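Milestone 3.1: sequence recovery, worked example.
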């Protein structure tokens, strides 16, 4: 996935082997994205990607176990940003509002004029296998998000309302697919979550 913001520098420099592995992984991901954007996801084979990155298919699968993973290489970073959206939200901002802003920034294809990022979102949105994969990727963070919501709300870690809010906040952007104005769809979905969360919070 194209970078949209600066990643913090690592706490300690990587060793030579780690640098080589990271460089190989990046080369494979870059080659795959280039080919996918050029010809379409379904028309590019694994062997072609391996050849373009000058690696074997065995090496490719060591880094990316499934084809869809070649497009998304930021799972840990995505979760960190998601949880930070809740923990580091401005004072007075509700949790649903913070999650709405995160969704609008990271999941609508808002590119700020970045043509490569816009092309990436077009690729994902036009490929059913990638749409399903990325949604599943986001939903993997449900439990971590639910725990963070509970911490921030002073509720038990297994509180069902926190789990529900986490799930629906991660699922809501799917409703925007195919709409001319995905930002409006996401905003309205989160308005619904905001009103429900406020009612629950007020009743405690």
């Amino acid at each position: 996935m194209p970078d949209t913001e600066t990643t913090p520098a690592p706490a300690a420099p990587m060793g030579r082997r780690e640098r080589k592995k990271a460089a190989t992984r990046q080369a494979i991901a870059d080659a795959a994205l280039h080919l996918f954007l050029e010809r379409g996801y379904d028309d590019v084979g694994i062997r072609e990607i391996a050849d373009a990155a000058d690696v074997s298919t065995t090496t490719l699968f060591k880094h990316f176990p499934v084809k869809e993973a070649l497009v998304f290489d930021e799972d840990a970073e995505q979760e960190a940003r998601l949880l930070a959206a809740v923990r580091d939200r401005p004072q007075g901002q509700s949790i649903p509002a913070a999650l709405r802003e995160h969704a609008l920034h990271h999941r609508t294809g808002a590119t700020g004029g970045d043509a490569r990022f816009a092309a990436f979102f077009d690729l994902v949105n036009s490929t059913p296998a990638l749409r399903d994969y990325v949604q599943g990727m986001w939903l993997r963070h449900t439990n971590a998000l639910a725990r963070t919501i509970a911490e921030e709300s002073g509720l038990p870690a297994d509180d069902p309302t926190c789990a529900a809010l986490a799930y629906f906040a991660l699922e809501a952007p799917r409703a925007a697919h195919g709409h001319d104005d995905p930002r409006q769809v996401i905003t309205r979905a989160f308005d619904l979550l905001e009103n429900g969360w406020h009612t629950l919070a007020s009743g405690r």
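The domain at 75-203 is CATH 1.10.357.10 (Tetracycline Repressor; domain 2). The CA atoms of residues 36 and 42 lie 8 Å apart.
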